[in-house]
Write a structure and sequence with these properties.
The chain is α/β, with parallel strands linked by helices. It is built from five helices and seven strands. Helix 3 links the parallel strand 5 and strand 6. The two termini are 12 Å apart. The structure holds guanosine-5'-triphosphate and magnesium ion.
């Protein structure tokens, strides 16, 4: 995919703030600090369009990025961050249910998981939620660069075996650090645009 333009549009909390251009949207979900923002940056060849951090739980709003005046990447706040109050967590859940549950232009969800670890309960629930909504799901098993070549296949098996089976799910090993399988990720996304 050739990137001609990529710009931050809005941090949205309420549906009234979602853009009304009608362009298709690809949402990025996953555990806090797993590498959602890094994934977007790598795909669009920008180091820092999307803010990344070593401080988890930073993204608290739905952040819209317009790519090639054609579609949006929607960076969704991560889950599973312990230092979040009950109240904040409830607000987060409400926002996600609203967004995922009734967002017409949402064409597919990219779920980022850590290839080094067994997907968490939250990851599994997320797959179930997406499957319940009948949305296409691209699972990106990221941080592949942190696994030695000999152990990658086993790690990918673990991801596949732990996540609930879903017929609209594709799993792609990936690294934002090295850009490995960037083309595969783009091809999977382009299919839904
Ligand atoms: P929140 O927005 O806080 O939920 O985090 P996030 O999911 O957007 O994660 P982010 O992209 O900010 O990355 C978190 C940390 O992981 C950063 O220090 C990144 O540099 C690092 N990281 C992300 N992807 C990779 C990867 O593929 N390989 C390696 N080695 N590090 C990565
Ligand atoms: Mg982020």
């Amino acid at each position: 995919m050739k990137i001609n333009s990529a710009e931050f549009i809005i941090s949205a909390v309420r549906p009234e703030q979602y853009p009304n251009t009608g362009y298709p949207e690809i949402a990025l979900a996953g555990r806090s600090n797993v590498g959602k923002s890094s994934f977007i940056n790598r795909l669009i060849n920008r180091k820092n369009l999307v803010r990344t951090s070593s401080r988890p739980g930073k993204t608290q709003t739905l952040n819209y990025y317009l790519i090639n005046d054609q579609f949006y990447f929607v960076d969704v706040p991560g889950y599973g961050y312990a230092q979040v109050s009950k109240q904040e967590r409830a607000k987060w859940g409400e926002m996600l249910e609203t967004y995922f549950g009734m967002r017409e232009p949402l064409e597919a969800v990219v779920l980022i998981v850590d290839s080094r670890h067994k997907p968490t309960e939250d990851d599994q629930q997320m797959v179930e939620f997406i499957a319940y909504l009948n949305l296409p799901l691209i699972v990106i098993a990221t941080k592949l660069d942190k696994i030695s070549k000999g152990k990658r296949q086993k790690a990918m098996q673990q991801v596949e075996n732990t996540l609930p089976a879903y017929d609209q799910m594709t799993i792609i090993p990936f690294s934002a650090e090295t850009g490995e399988n960037k083309d595969k990720a783009w091809n999977a996304i382009k299919y839904y645009l």
